[in-house]
Amino acid sequence: MLDLSAKSPENAAEMSEYNFAYLDEQTKRMIRRAILKGLAIPGYQVPFASREMPMPYGWGTGGVQVSAATLTPEDTLKVIDQGADDTTNAVSIRKFFEKTAGVATTEETSDASLIQTRHRIPETELSEDQILVYQVPIPEPLRFLEPSEVETRKMHSLEEYGLMHVKLYEDIAKHGAIATAYAYPVKVEGRYVMDPSPIPKFDNPKMEMAAIQLFGAGREQRIYALPPYTKVVSLDFDDYPFEASKADHACDMCGAEESYLDEVIMDDAGNRMFVCSDTDYCAGRRAAGHVGAQAVADREIGQ
Amino acid sequence: MNADALKGGFANAPVGAAHGFRAAMNAMARPGKIEVVAGAVPPAPMSAAAGVLLLTLCDPETPVYLAGAHDCEAVRQWIAFHVGAPLIRPERAVFALGTWDALAPLDQFAIGTAEYPDRSATVIVEQLELVAEGAVLRGPGIKDTARLGLPDVSVFQRNAMMFPLGLDFFFTAKDRLVALPRTTKVEAG
Ligand SMILES: [Zn+2]
Hints:
The complex is a heterodimer. Chain A is of the alpha/beta class. Chain A has helices spanning 9-16, 25-40, 61-70, 88-101, 149-157, 162-175, 279-287, 293-302, and strands spanning 46-47, 76-81, 104-105, 114-118, 131-135, 186-188, 192-194, 212-217, 222-226, 232-234, 261-265, 272-276. Chain A folds into 2 domains: 14-234, Rossmann fold (3-Layer(aba) Sandwich), CATH 3.40.50.11310; 261-302, no CATH class. Chain A is built from 8 helices and 12 strands. Chain A starts with 8 loop residues before the first helix and ends with a helix. Chain B has one domain (3-182): Rossmann fold (3-Layer(aba) Sandwich). Helix content of chain B is 26%, strand content 19%. In chain B, strands 1-8-7-4-3-2 form a 6-stranded mixed beta sheet. Chain B has a 3-stranded antiparallel beta sheet with strand order 6-5-9. Classes of the chains: A alpha/beta, B alpha/beta. At the A-B interface, helix 1, helix 2, strand 1 and helix 5 of A face helix 1 and helix 3 of B. The structure holds zinc ion. Zinc ion (ZN) binds at residues 251, 253-254, 256, 259, 275-276, 282, 285 of chain A. Chain B: It comes from Shimia abyssi.
């Protein structure tokens, strides 16, 4: 419930206006202050008072609140869910902002001024004029080592990251390699260890980019940020350097060899194909005439 | 209350604040990059840019310290009406506003704590102009280097040394603003 009695005359007046991008002005100011402190202290998790949103947690309420506080009416919004623009989650968030903020939307990465993402960084390199907002389920990279918030906060303040390295090294002892494939922890500007959200580790090197990156965790009530060109290093060891791995395959639709691929099961016989997880990237390549193995096979059957 | 205090807020608060925040965020994310803002007409000696920052970021939850000539009746009334922020002494300020000389000494402002470095003041320094030459800036948000005319160099070097604690600065002049967060490493140009 909003307490109008605590507000200044201006704020009370605002409440009778429509709320641009759903949230009231006082909430947006609180989120905006958290974003600025996040940018000033890259990789540090700023607490904020997360609001109820008209969608359940797990649907990206943290990312939605960050986007709501950041959007202007002139923005063009793109929303992706694991690289795809057409999932239920991505479509409903896009519709939400079309309705509440009146912004234009797009599926083309290069046309978007603000991109909200769940679990991927677009393949197309982002520019200085773009903002990437991540939906984050668990912002605390040390949480699986230490359940107490009091303790993890202390560990960050003391730069006590030894346990994290021990865990990664145990992976190597057990599996011969670091098993962590998603949400692979990074160190920001040589100071804070940060959870990059559950993007594949293939995407980690892209985080040193020209765009502004903002991270919102709704249930956990944390916002963090990376200014452009911030130094982001995936944790590793001299004898086991970090590797941004992907399936050793080309996209069966567009033939791309450098993009992150999803493995898709095609029929009951267990036939499978590899397809770009970034649907806009794949469609753009196909429109430009690139052809993958499956597309070639389809064409031959058609002949 | 003076009738002038009722004027000079955003004509459309949600849209004015959205634009104001985009400029403030771009500035904080790209130290040294000068942004142009619009929509606020605060009383002298407050600049339009400082007015936009206060309208966009401050409210009853953010105590503001007014330094020197900015601590005048016209500014106090304008803030009371348009922002609703309580005015407070420097040590408790979330935002501080004034000229460089009036804001001194800077160590009176909160620099955050080891566990909550975000609990630090944001200092808005009013200047006659902003100049993209002078001190050399390096750090997050800056591809190679940026340049910015600063009222001092050693103060910002000491501030950066305290990272992750420290103050974050906006510099404002007329309708322009630029930021210098604690992460920026400053060298005399
Ligand atoms: Zn493809």
